[in-house]
Amino acid sequence: MGILIKPIITEKMTSLAEKLNRYGFVVERSANKVQIRKAVEEMYGVKVDAVNTQQYVGKVKTRNTTRGIAIGRVNRSKRAFVTLKAGEMIDFYANI
């Protein structure tokens, strides 16, 4: 399995991509910034300016249902926010 698991495609990330040239990815928890930079540059053929990472802590969530209280858990993950150099762009929809 590669370093990059999937891109984060939300309204907020789309607006950040347009304004600040910043893209988000869910990455392997063991990956560091250098590995993430190399993976993005190889996969998309762009030049990376900066990489910021964020550890997302898993949470326990409960909700009331007709059968009682349902308890679930959200998995831990790591996210990387990659800023590209000026003039570079990633098109996630190009090969659909």
Molecular structure report:
By secondary structure, the chain is of the alpha+beta class. The protein has 2 helices and 6 strands, in the order βαβαββββ. The chain has helices at 11-20, 33-44, and strands at residues 4-8, 22-27, 48-56, 60-65, 68-73, 77-84. The strands form 2 sheets. Strands 1-2-6-3 form a 4-stranded antiparallel sheet. The protein has a two-stranded antiparallel sheet with strand order 4-5. β4 (60-65) and β5 (68-73) form a beta hairpin. The protein starts with a strand and ends in a 12-residue tail after the last strand. The mean pLDDT is 93.
Quick structural overview:
The longest helix is centred in the middle third of the chain and has 12 residues, at 33-44.
Number of strands: 6
CATH class annotation: Alpha Beta
Biggest beta sheet summary: 4 strands, antiparallel
- Please indicate the count of domains: 1
Distance, first to last CA: 21 Å
Q: Give the CA-based shape.
A: elongated
What is the CATH-assigned architecture? 2-Layer Sandwich
| Order of helical and strand elements | EHEHEEEE
> What are the low-pLDDT stretches, counting only 5+ consecutive residues below 50?
none
If helices are DSSP runs of H or I spanning 4 or more residues, what is the number of helices?
Answer: 2
CATH topology: Alpha-Beta Plaits
From the alpha carbons, calculate the radius of gyration and give it in angstroms.
16 Å
**Considering the protein shown, what is the CATH homologous superfamily?**
RRM (RNA recognition motif) domain
Mean pLDDT: 93
